[in-house]
Amino acid sequence: MTTTTTAADRAAGALLGLACGDAAGVPYEFASALYDPHQGPQMIGGGLGPYEPGEWSDDTQMALCIARVAASDVPLDSPEGLDAIAQGFLDWLQRGASDVGTQTRQVLSALHRDDGHPGLAQRMTAVAAELHARSGRTGGNGALMRTAPVALAFPDDPERTARAARSIAELTHADPLAGDSCVLWCEAIRRSVVDAMRGRPEDGLELLPAESREAWAALAEGTWRAGAPASLSPNGFTVTALFAALHAVEQAASADEDGPTATFRAGIAAAVALGDDTDTIAAITGSLLGTWTGAEEIPQEWTDMVHGWPGYDGPGLAAVATMIFRHS
Predict the structure, then answer these.
(1) CA 83 to chain centre
(2) How many whole angstroms separate alpha carbon 91 and alpha carbon 25?
(3) What gap in Å lies between CA 248 and CA 315, rounded to an integer?
């Protein structure tokens, strides 16, 4: 990490990096377009929807539902804050969703006619828990992809950040592994922003429940360091998605000697090269890499192009991140 970045620039990098990774991965999702590793990812639009060049997908759209609450005067982790996030998800489903994960759609569709009275988040969490009880398959990457804004809300309180990350994950993803993944990724982002260091998911191991900490620690020592690209696709499972993003982040370090902009670009390229859910893996990757490099070092041609629901562009995202950080 460069020593010239400020905490505010690193915080802005989390949201801007998320969006740039998302938009750079959109064209190649599930091989919608042929990826040329020599050319690298191009924000050409297309993908699984009628995306314009530079337009982000559901990863950033859902993250903004969280970010806008975090930037308000309502504490993100309060009952009112969680209700506002839940209502934001429902509004997004009705008005802005360009793509919706299967699991997220199942939960939100069950509540799309909800009256919006207090307790919406509690009802949404209960629906997600019921889905998990029926299927046992609620560990998709849809909570991890949107978690970055949570890491900016309470920068000096890792425990509160972890609790908020899990509560927001559980609105749609009841599998504890989804919550664990969000806790680990948020702590990596939080430490990068606050401590001007290259935060990593293993920094958050002590924030996990005792019953899961040992298993994740074993993964930190083995699997997620040794994961070969062939084992990281498909990557719709939250644990595989975390491994895939971490692989891409580590590949980015090989470009350090060419400067932070090259580092960011190399990480997004590595994420897209893995294939499968390219927009989501690149979005997760970008949310952490953006805090490593700072927003100012994300490629300008990308930050100039990114845009999407609900009407934001690159500078708008940076402004939201700054508001979250000022409220913290």
Answers:
(1) 20
(2) 25
(3) 25
The count of other CB atoms within 10 Å of the CB of residue 127 is 19
| pLDDT band at 2; cut points 50, 70, 90 | very low
DSSP annotation of 78 reads: S
**Dist. CA 288–CA 148, nearest whole Å:** 8
Q: Is residue 1 part of a domain?
A: no
In a domain, 213, yes or no: yes
Question: Rounded CA gap, 166 and 28, in Å?
Answer: 30
C-alpha angle 249-71-106 in degrees, rounded to nearest 5? 70
The span from the CA of 94 to the CA of 145, in Å, is: 20
The beta strand positions in the chain, using DSSP E, are: 307-308, 312-313
Q: How confident is the model at residue 227 (pLDDT cuts 50, 70, 90)?
A: low
| Distance (Å, whole) CA 23 – CA 19 | 6
Q: CA-to-CA distance for 21 and 278, rounded, in angstroms?
A: 9
Tokens of 76: 């993100």
Whether the CB-CB separation of 61 and 309 falls below 8 Å is answered with yes
Q: State the pLDDT confidence band at 327, using cuts at 50, 70 and 90.
A: confident
Domain assignment present for 171: yes
The domain in which residue 304 lies consists of 7-327
The total number of structural domains that make up the chain: 1
Count of CB atoms situated within 10 Å of the CB of 281? 37
- In a domain, residue 136? The reply is yes
Task: Convert the pLDDT of each residue in 64-106 to its tens digit.
Answer: 999 999 999 999 999 999 999 999 999 999 988 988 999 999 9
Q: What's the rounded Cα separation, in Å, for the pair 26 and 47?
A: 5
CATH assignment of the domain containing 258: 1.10.4080.10
